[in-house]
Recover the amino acids of this structure.
């Protein structure tokens, strides 16, 4: 897996991702503690609302930002967004009111909604080989997992000597170092695109995504991930501090347990995906998430919470990590940024529902019932994923183009005037998925 780091461009991008994630991880812990300081036992509701605002920014901004940035230099765009995020994060330690959390989180995530899809779409251009790209996806997932593990551990150590307000400084530093690393490399130029209207560029990724069966299945799995993940992210601080009466340090260690499980799965996935298709791996991960969330209703001690968070972390990573492979093979290279932006927006729409639901239900009907409700949502999502995503998915799909002239370049390329087969993706020549598939 680490062999791909010999690619200097990718290794610097990966390092930038790790450092920015480390800073973001410190912010996650600090934000939860800040919400508890301002709202006490209602911290879950406050944090759930803050994270819902984050998701609104993601869902509403990502496709528009991708369309606006189509013709902008990638490196300049990524560096500018990192600097802007650092400037916003610099204001977080000075928050004294709940509404201020909401405003700054919105601004921070508007920038992230522009940054992340652009960053993700660059990687396949740097690593065009699918095997290398698979390793990069697992390494990227591992980076997220290490952030979930190391950031809480680092936060726990720092909290013994400083106030949690100072953890936000790590977020600022992470974004600035990320900007410097990206500035130090040259990124591949974006593939030349067909000229389209702004409205068409904004909606193109969504149309490709929703017309592709495997991606509709991916969206359902994203809902299962969000339903289970929201319980961990929103209610860990409430479970540990309000229910068990423990300290900020124990909150950090609970997040570390979740990150450890995710890291275990990320390390195992490259070899697993060499032998198994994406679909069974991702559905199995979603099942683990669902069962673990249902078991959360019975947790009555911190000692029981830690292994459960570990198991949910395993499912969380297994269900998500292969998604980049699905996106890569579901669009032409020129449409890749649009389809990554669509996944970013649609997956976060799932979090937009799950975050406030986990927070508000936890405050109103109790955590036990909330665990069961979120597990039920995840179970329904798994059923939808199985329905939308066919178990048999041939690499090449036979189809024909009765609307094309016999001498059309596409038909000449495949040496046929009628039915032919090739790797099928939605594009200008293939606007609908073949019904026979």
């Amino acid at each position: 897996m680490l062999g791909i780091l010999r690619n200097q461009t990718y290794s610097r991008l990966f390092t930038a991702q790790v450092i920015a994630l480390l800073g973001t991880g410190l912010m996650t812990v600090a934000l939860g503690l800040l919400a508890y300081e301002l709202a006490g036992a209602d911290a879950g509701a406050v944090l759930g609302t803050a994270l819902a605002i984050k998701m609104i920014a993601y869902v509403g901004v990502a496709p528009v930002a991708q369309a606006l940035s189509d013709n902008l230099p990638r490196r300049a765009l990524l560096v500018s967004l990192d600097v802007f995020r650092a400037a916003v994060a610099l204001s977080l330690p000075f928050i004294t009111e709940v509404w201020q959390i909401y405003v700054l989180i919105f601004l921070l995530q508007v920038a992230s909604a522009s940054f992340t899809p652009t960053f993700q779409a660059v990687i396949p251009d740097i690593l065009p080989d699918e095997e290398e790209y698979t390793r990069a996806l697992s390494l990227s997932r591992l980076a997220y997992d290490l952030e979930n593990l190391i950031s809480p551990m680092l936060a726990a150590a720092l909290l013994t000597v400083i106030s949690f307000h100072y953890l936000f400084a790590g977020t600022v530093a992470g974004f600035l170092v990320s900007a410097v690393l990206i500035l130090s490399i040259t990124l591949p130029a974006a593939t030349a695109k067909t000229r389209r209207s702004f409205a068409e560029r904004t909606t193109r990724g969504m149309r490709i995504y929703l017309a592709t069966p495997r991606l509709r299945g991916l969206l359902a799995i994203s809902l299962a991930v969000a339903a289970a993940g929201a319980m961990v992210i929103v209610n860990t601080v409430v479970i540990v501090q309000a229910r068990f009466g423990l300290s900020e340090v124990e909150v950090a260690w609970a997040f570390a347990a979740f990150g450890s499980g995710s890291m275990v799965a990320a390390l195992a996935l490259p070899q697993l995906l060499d032998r198994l298709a994406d679909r069974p791996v991702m559905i199995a991960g979603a099942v683990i998430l669902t069962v673990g969330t249902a078991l959360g209703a019975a947790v009555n001690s911190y000692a029981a919470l830690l292994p459960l968070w570990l198991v949910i972390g395993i499912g969380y990573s297994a269900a998500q990590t292969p998604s980049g492979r699905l996106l890569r093979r579901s669009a032409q290279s020129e449409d890749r940024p649009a389809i990554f932006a669509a996944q970013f927006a649609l997956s976060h729409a799932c979090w937009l529902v799950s975050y406030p639901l986990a927070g508000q239900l936890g405050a109103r009907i109790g955590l036990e019932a909330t665990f069961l409700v979120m597990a039920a949502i995840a179970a329904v999502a798994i059923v939808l994923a199985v329905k939308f995503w066919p178990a048999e998915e041939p690499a090449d799909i036979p189809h024909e183009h009765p609307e094309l002239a016999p001498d059309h370049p596409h038909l000449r390329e495949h040496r046929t005037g009628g039915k032919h087969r090739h790797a099928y993706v939605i594009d200008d020549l293939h606007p609908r998925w073949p019904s026979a598939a």
